[in-house]
From TrEMBL, chain A:
Tagged with keyword Ion transport: no
Main location: cytoplasm
Name of protein: Vacuolar protein sorting-associated protein
Record key words, sorted: Cytoplasm, Golgi apparatus, Membrane, Protein transport, Transport
Domain of life per record: Eukaryota
GO BP annotations, alphabetical order: intracellular protein transport
Family: Belongs to the VPS26 family.
Oligomeric form and interacting partners: Component of the retromer complex which consists of VPS29 (MAG1), VPS26 (VPS26A or VPS26B), VPS35 (VPS35A or VPS35B or VPS35C), VPS5/17 (SNX1 or SNX2A or SNX2B). Component of a retromer subcomplex consisting of VPS29 (MAG1), VPS26 (VPS26A or VPS26B), VPS35 (VPS35A or VPS35B or VPS35C).
Organism: Arachis hypogaea
GO CC aspect terms: endosome membrane; Golgi apparatus
Places the protein is found: Cytoplasm; Endosome membrane; Golgi apparatus, trans-Golgi network membrane; Prevacuolar compartment membrane
From TrEMBL, chain B:
Stated name of the protein: Vacuolar protein sorting-associated protein 35
Gene3D superfamilies xref list: Vacuolar protein sorting-associated protein 35, helical subcomplex Vps35-C
Pfam families: Vps35
Bilayer topology annotation: Peripheral membrane protein
Keyword annotations: Cytoplasm, Endosome, Golgi apparatus, Membrane, Protein transport, Transport
Example GO biological process: intracellular protein transport
Family: Belongs to the VPS35 family.
GO cellular component: a single term: Golgi apparatus
Length: 301, 794
């Protein structure tokens, strides 16, 4: 295998580094092949400054028609595999056509890059940011190297954040009133609330609060909707009677949540719901789903 | 349900196995300080407690195992915080568990460490814990979880003097916490009965009963909080607890919790909050066994009152009696279906309480009895045996307390309560009363009291209407009547007039007793009267002048009437004895006609009623004995009576009896201290007659059986001879004695006589006496000297 690999070995090593790579926060990132690597974290409007180092293999030279680095923001639909949609594309030419004999380093800089969307890795869709270095070689095929990085955008706490309060029920069977303290939660937030039982005529076995994520991709007839239950949190065990009030306290930090994404580039949306589920002794489920908005709050460190 | 229990064992075993396995992993994580794994495995371990398949009993077993593991986990958490892990983070971390039950167990465990760390006020943590526990609405799991919370928080309450008491934390927070936990637990406990199919209700109630201590423990914790002083108890604790008790509307819970309240909190608190506590009682479910609850309360208060005299003023201050009394009234009204047993038990307890707390307030005791009568009225006789027992207890209480029937007699309602008892019980009660009098030697000294007392014990005095005594055991009856007889002896008053009244009262009552009782009751009455006679006799005649109603004469008249009543029943021997007793008393009073009359009556009885020969013998000896001592009679009367007596003697059936009676009659003619009554000739006549009869007896025996029988009679007569000889009867000569001795010797040596060791011994001792008198010397010795006697050579 080794020598086979050696045969197809690229003619050079291409290394992309960030200038502030040492200090910049690194976050885990899952690649297509399932491996998790740590990559630098950026946010919109930041300068992305770094170097591209090209080091030809010992004793080889690289003929090229130019070297460029691109910053790409891509949306990839899995059902439309291979079809990337670039919503952001910036290019910096690094070198004019020529030959590289030895290790050569090109600095690059993208200033105040507009990166409105966050990196997202969903069921049917992926949004990623990547630096793409291309060494253009006419006949031998270009040498291309990618460097992923993650973008997260922070929002300030919303000025209006009403609680969600609702009375629901099945006539003569079950009436409850529930309340979640907010409608917008940041990713490390705590959902506080309570469920108040106004009428109970069914034998309830337990009650759970689920966090569901609904990812819809495509548009029109081509819309794919995927719903995942990210959290199933038991709130109550046993059958309550009229007048009982059951507390809710759900810490969001253990779950892998993302901010709510609405109609990202007309390609996809990610929404979050709290689903209150009551299960009776015959395992019938009674539920009520409420949308909540997730946002990323600047972590004070 | 065999399968059910087997299955249950299986489930329990599976649960334990799962628990042990996860606790093993947990320990491994603990040893390697792996917090995340420790949490994971402890949550899995605790998941075993989520089962619904175990009965509370089995569940408890599982819980205890988990409990032990949690202790270790708690220690680990403590170490973890010492190593620098923030307790606040830990507190959050355990809440990530998806299942609520393990989550809450862990939360309580960390909460306990949190309070210890003092990084947050204890009250906030406690409040959070008790609130979060609401998530468990399953009764059994909820009860155990909250019990766990109660357990881990017990030593961490912000009580007065506790290290967790802070500026912000006061004892009221501690109380609030416990109260809330209590309330929730009680709700769960009460709810348990509605879970599951109706047919298993009984089983469920039993299971509930097993769990009750989990709930009650909270009250215990409350009572242990230092800071719960009287004010706080009165203003917060009790009203809140009672509110819960009343509102839960559950029989089992109400009874248990009321009992708990009474048992765990101090007596003085109860005393000061009687209003509130008692106010709750009528609001309880009608089926609650409230009588036991109240009885317990009163019992406790009684003990409290008895414990120290200093606390008694408190009782007065809060008018404990009035309050209890009212409360009982209200409870009985609120529960119209309460059985008689309940009613009586309540009053019985109240009475005990009153007697302990207000021994001086007899009117209270009477009020209690009165109230009891009112409640019993219209219900007829009590038939329930338990209720009867309670009534007896109720009525015995004052007797025991005062040791004095006089006090009980003052209770006007006492006899009215008695009326509700059935006949046998009334009798038992009467016996109890009499026993009390006997034990304490109480003298009953006025006719009013006697009247009242007889009213109480009338079950013994006469047959009650329409019921017969057939069922009654003869021995028991005798026992009862004997006790009545003893009771009659306890009546005494120094004042003769009052005493006479007493006697008349007694007479009135006992005469109603019917033939079966009179033989028992008349004698003591007669002796009582005679006692009075003797008393009067000692005094000057008629110290009160002529008007005085109490004279011996009058009493004798009364006695005559009393004894006469015995004639209706065939007990002539008894009547005869009593007549003789009276005659003797009359003799001492120097009332010849009266004495004569009594004798006449006795003779009439002898002639007309006494036909049994054995009885005749006894009676004739009694008559002779009595008559011998009479000194009041004039010659004529005496002659008549002695003549009659001698006549009766000679007419006895058997010769030996005749003989003995006749020689006894000889004493009638020789009264030692009265010279005018020494008639030696007639003495001799009697003795000779006796000899003749003895002779005849022997001949008859000879004829009938071929042997002459015993010489006993002769020896007896010889003794009489010697007696009169010694007393100086001139008619009794040495010669006559000598010849009698010879006669006896001959008889004894004759072949036809069967030897009789008793007779021989008797003779020998008689002769020894003669010998002894001889040796005495002096006048007596000289007198005996001539008597010769040759002992028999066998």
């Amino acid at each position: 295998m080794n020598y086979l690999l050696g045969a197809f070995k690229p003619a050079c090593n291409v290394l992309i580094t960030f200038n502030d790579g040492k200090n910049r926060k690194q976050v885990p990132f899952k690649k297509e092949n399932g491996q998790t690597v740590t990559v630098p974290l950026f946010q919109s409007q930041e300068n992305i400054v770094g170097k591209v180092t090209i080091e030809p293999m010992q004793g080889k030279k690289i003929d090229h028609n130019g070297v460029k680095v691109e910053l790409l923001g891509q949306i990839e639909m899995y059902f439309d595999r291979g079809n990337f949609y670039d919503f952001t594309s910036l290019v910096r030419e690094l070198d004019v056509p020529g030959e590289i004999y030895e290790r050569k380093t090109y600095p690059f800089e993208f200033s105040t890059v507009e990166m409105p969307y966050e990196t997202y890795n969903g069921v049917n869709v992926r949004l990623r940011y990547v630096l793409k270095v291309t060494i253009n070689r006419g006949y031998a095929g270009s040498i291309i190297e990618y460097q992923d990085f993650v973008v997260r955008n922070y929002s300030p706490p919303p000025t209006i954040n009403n609680s969600i309060k609702m009375e629901v029920g099945i006539e003569d069977c079950l009436h409850i009133e529930f309340e979640y303290n907010k409608s917008k939660y940041h990713l490390k937030d705590v959902i506080i609330g309570k469920i108040y039982f106004l009428l109970v005529r069914i034998k309830i076995k337990n009650m759970d609060l689920e966090i569901r994520r609904r990812e819809s991709t495509g548009s029109g007839t081509n819309t794919h909707v995927e719903t995942e239950t990210l959290a199933k949190f038991e709130l109550m065990d046993g059958a309550p009677v009229r007048g009982e009030s059951i507390p809710i306290r759900l810490f969001l930090s253990p779950y892998e949540l993302t901010p709510t994404h609405r109609n990202i580039n007309n390609k996809f949306s990610v929404k979050y719901f709290l689903n209150l589920v009551l299960v009776d002794e015959e395992d019938r489920r009674y539920f009520k789903q409420q949308e909540i908005t997730m946002y990323r709050l600047q972590e004070s460190s | 349900m065999l399968d059910g229990t087997e299955d249950e064992e299986k489930f329990l075993a599976a649960g334990i196995a799962g628990l042990q396995q996860n606790s093993f992993y947990m320990h491994r994580a603990l040893d390697s300080n792996n917090l995340r794994d420790a949490l994971k495995y402890s949550a899995q371990m605790l998941s075993e407690l989520r089962t619904s398949k175990l009965s509370p009993h089995k569940y408890y077993e599982l819980y205890m195992r988990a409990f032990d593991q949690l202790r270790k986990l708690e220690m680990f958490f403590e170490e973890e915080t010492r190593r620098g892990c923030s307790i606040i983070d830990l507190y959050e971390l355990v809440q990530h568990a998806g299942n609520i039950l393990p989550r809450l167990y862990l939360l309580c465990t960390v909460g306990s460490v949190y309070i210890k760390s003092k990084e947050a006020p204890a009250k906030d943590v406690l409040k959070d814990l008790v609130e979060m526990c609401r998530g468990i609405q399953h009764p059994v799991r909820g009860l155990f979880l909250r019990s766990y919370l109660s357990q881990v928080s017990r030593d961490k309450l912000p009580d007065i003097g506790s290290e967790y008491e802070g500026d912000a934390d006061t004892v009221s927070d501690a109380v609030e916490f416990v109260l809330q936990n209590f309330t929730e637990m009680n709700k769960l406990w009460v709810r348990m009965q509605h879970q599951g199919p109706a047919r298993e209700k009984e089983k469920r109630e039993k299971e509930r009963s097993e769990l009750r201590d989990l709930v009650g423990k909270n009250l215990h914790v409350l009572s242990q909080i230092e800071g719960v002083d009287l004010d706080m108890y009165k203003d917060i604790v009790l009203p809140r607890v009672l509110e819960q008790v009343v509102n839960c509307k559950d029989e089992l819970a109400q009874f248990y919790l009321m009992d708990c309240i009474i048992q765990v909190f101090p007596d003085e608190y109860h005393l000061q909050t009687l209003d509130v506590l008692l106010g709750a009682c009528p609001q309880l479910q009608p089926s609650v066994d409230i009588k036991t609850v109240l009885s317990q309360l009163m019992e406790r208060l009684s003990h409290y009152a008895a414990s120290s005299a200093e606390v008694l003023p408190e009782f007065l201050q809060v008018e404990a009696f009035a309050k209890l009394s009212n409360a009982i009234g209200r409870v009985i009204e609120a529960q119209p279906d309460m059985p008689t047993l309940g009613v009586v038990t309540l009053y019985s307890s109240l009475l005990t309480f009153t007697l302990h707390v207000h021994p001086d307030r007899l009117d209270y005791a009477d009020q209690v009895l009165g109230a009891c009568v009112r409640k019993l009225s219209g219900k007829g006789k009590i038939e329930d045996s338990k209720a009867t027992k309670q009534v007896v207890a109720l009525l015995s209480a004052p007797l025991e307390k005062y040791n004095d029937i006089m006090t009980a007699l003052k209770l006007s309602n006492y006899p009215r309560v008695l009326e509700y008892l059935d006949v046998p019980t009334i009798r038992v009660m009467a016996t109890v009363i009499i026993q009390s009098i006997m034990k304490n030697g109480t003298r009953i000294s006025t006719s009013d009291k006697v009247e009242a007392l007889f009213e109480l014990i009338k079950g013994l005095i006469k047959d009650s209407d329409g019921t017969s005594n057939d069922k009654l055991d003869e021995d028991d009856f005798k026992e009862e009547q004997n006790s009545v007889a003893r009771l009659i002896q306890m009546f005494y008053n120094d004042d003769p007039e009052e005493m006479l009244k007493i006697i008349e009262t007694v007479r009135k009552h006992i005469l109603a007793g019917g033939p079966k009782r009179l033989p028992f009751t008349v004698p003591p009455l007669v002796f009582c009267s005679l006692k009075l006679v003797r008393q009067l006799q000692g005094q000057e005649e008629n110290p009160f002048g002529d008007d005085a109603s109490t004279t011996p004469k009058k009493i004798f008249q009364l006695l005559n009437q009393i004894i006469e009543t015995l004639s209706g029943i065939p007990v002539p021997e008894l009547a005869l004895q009593l007549y003789l007793q009276c005659a003797e008393a009359a003799n001492d009073c120097e009332l010849e006609p009266v004495a004569y009359e009594f004798f006449t009556q006795a003779y009439i009885l002898y002639e007309e009623e006494i036909s049994d020969s054995r009885a005749q013998i006894t009676c004739i000896h009694l008559i002779i004995g009595t008559l011998q001592r009479m000194h009041v009679f004039g010659v004529e009367n005496r002659d008549t009576l002695t003549h009659k007596a001698t006549g009766y003697s000679a007419k006895l059936l058997k010769k030996p009896d005749q003989c003995r009676a006749v020689y006894a009659c000889s004493h009638l003619f020789w009264v030692e201290d009265h010279d005018n009554m020494k008639d030696g000739e007639r003495v001799l006549l009697c003795l000779k007659r006796a000899l003749r009869i003895a002779n005849a007896a022997q001949q008859m025996a000879n004829a009938a059986r071929g042997s002459t029988g015993s010489v006993m009679l002769f020896i007896e007569i010889l003794n009489k001879y010697l007696y009169f000889f010694e007393k100086g009867n001139p008619q009794i000569t040495v010669a006559s004695i000598q010849s009698l001795i010879e006669l006896i010797m001959n008889e004894m040596q004759s072949d036809s006589t069967t030897s009789d060791p008793a007779a021989e011994a008797f003779l020998a001792s008689t002769m020894r006496y003669v010998q002894f008198q001889k040796q005495k010397g002096g006048a007596v010795g000289e007198k005996y000297e001539p008597i010769k006697y040759e002992p028999i050579k066998a």
